[in-house]
Specification:
Citrate Synthase, domain 1, mainly alpha, 5 strands, binds carboxymethyl coenzyme *A, globular, 51% helix
Length: 428
């Protein structure tokens, strides 16, 4: 007779012979339920061991859906391809934060709120001035965005909805200003102030490149491409920096401090720093002829192919596909970046190679984004900063969702202790 179907898991503990029934909800079991599996009354109970959270859901989230095997990415249900084609970055930011796309009136108000908060306190410039001329702009961004919390003590009022909203607007509005100022500092250029007549990406380009002209007018193809790149980076569910944002937020820190921590996580070469590493890698390869030798060294384990592979995508990253199209748009204005030929050939060879096929390694979002950024004139060190500007709304949407989730508490993983047993200073 077939067993009765139930949404539960029955586990037998072979140490004791006891069976336990654990509920299954949404394809997951509640890990705390494992604690009832014990060998004795004073036993702590079973834990799950999952370094790097390979198979642990840390939250319920309604923000972003990814199906890594099928290469699907949706924000609040909308496919990334449709948003990249038809929406602006600020519309997408609103969607991520509010759950719905704005109507015309809501969008106008949202854009105005952001536009009116792009300026930063003049004292922030003094911090930036204190950094070395060769300071990495991500280091400057981590420092200055964290410092903003001291300028907005009201940001501590995380239980107050209107205060949360204001801090979110401030963060989305000021990230491009901090980023552009970090660049201008490195170049020894005077800071270019925000221009409220310009749209979000346009204004960023203005703060980056404006010199003596009275009014800076970016090429519409370039500002559009940048806006699309921001959309593609806007959220990616529980990635390393977003999880950092949630973890810091769970301690009820203010959102500026949490953003500094998330930015620090993004800085790493395995995360948002990968776009920078891709460009350095392509320069090192230097020519198409050197690709086979380079691939052999990757396969030997000398180093990784940067911009390839993903924890979640085991198929082509949908963002990388869109970026390839954006590249054409950009190159029609800037001329073709010679790095593209190396990248295309690298991708072609890698996708035919057994190692990459069997490991399901495909280009990720960072593989082509750097080539576009470089063609647009951004220095390599600024690439992760551009990622951070795009990711800001996603961090905030996830931070707020975590704060409002009644199932959440302060994040505090368990450990399996693997150190010395008790010992004493007298050697006993
Ligand atoms: N080149 C060569 N081999 C790789 C690569 C790569 N880029 N990525 C993974 N592998 C191999 C790895 O050596 C391992 O092989 P084996 O099983 O034979 O030991 C296998 O694939 C699984 O790798 P893993 O390190 O267990 O995979 P992970 O899910 O922990 O790592 C990753 C994901 C993105 C950190 C990794 O693929 C990687 O280091 N990629 C290069 C850096 C990169 O492009 N990062 C950007 C990620 S997308 C944007 C973002 O989220 O920030």
């Amino acid at each position: 007779m077939a067993a009765e179907k139930k949404d539960t898991l029955t586990v037998t503990d072979n140490r004791t012979g006891k069976a336990y029934e654990i509920p299954i909800k949404d394809g997951a079991i509640p890990a705390p339920d494992l604690r009832k599996i014990k060998v004795s009354e004073d036993d702590f109970g079973l834990m799950s061991y999952d370094p790097a959270f390979l198979n642990t859901a840390s939250c319920r989230s309604a923000v972003t859906f990814i199906d890594g095997d099928r290469g699907i990415l949706r924000y609040r249900g909308y496919p990334i391809q449709e948003l990249a084609e038809r929406s602006s970055f600020l519309e997408v930011a609103y969607l991520l934060l509010e759950g719905e796309l704005p109507d015309k009136v809501a969008l106008e108000s949202w854009v105005e709120q952001i536009t009116l908060r792009t300026f930063i306190h003049e004292n922030i410039k003094k911090f930036i001035d204190g950094f070395h001329h060769d300071a990495h702009p991500m280091g400057i961004l981590v420092g200055t965005v964290g410092a903003l919390s001291t300028f907005y003590p009201d940001a501590k009022k995380i239980d107050d909805e209107s205060s949360r909203h204001l801090q979110m607007v401030r963060l989305i509005a000021k990230m491009p200003t901090l980023a552009a100022f970090a660049y201008r500092h490195a170049m020894g250029l005077p800071y270019a102030y925000p221009d409220n007549d310009l749209a979000y990406a346009e204004n960023f380009l203005n703060m980056m490149w404006k010199t003596t002209e009275l009014k800076y007018k970016p090429d519409p193809a370039l500002s559009h491409a940048l806006d699309v790149l921001f959309i593609l980076h806007a959220d990616h569910e529980q990635n390393c920096s977003t999880s950092t944002m949630r973890v810091v937020g769970s301690a009820r820190s203010d959102p500026f401090s949490a953003t500094a921590a998330a930015t620090a996580a993004l800085y790493g070469p395995l995360h948002g720093g990968a776009n920078e590493m891709v460009l350095r890698m392509l320069s090192e390869i230097g020519s198409v002829d050197n690709i086979p030798g380079y691939i052999e060294r990757v396969k030997k384990g000398d180093f990784r192919l940067m911009g390839f592979g993903h924890r979640v995508y085991k198929n082509y990253d949908p963002r990388a596909k869109i970026i390839k199209q954006v590249a054409e748009e950009v190159f029609s204005v800037t001329g073709r970046n010679p790095m593209l030929d190396i990248a295309l050939e690298l991708e072609r060879i890698a996708l035919e190679d057994d190692y990459f096929v069997s490991h399901k390694l495909y280009p990720n979002v960072d593989f082509y984004s750097g080539i576009i950024y470089q063609a647009m004139g951004f220095p390599v060190a600024l690439f992760p900063v551009l990622f951070a500007i795009g990711r800001m709304p996603g961090w905030l949407a996830q931070w707020e969702e975590g704060l409002l989730d009644p199932e959440q508490k302060i994040s505090r993983p368990r450990q399996v202790y693997a150190g010395s047993p008790e010992r004493h200073l007298n050697g006993a």
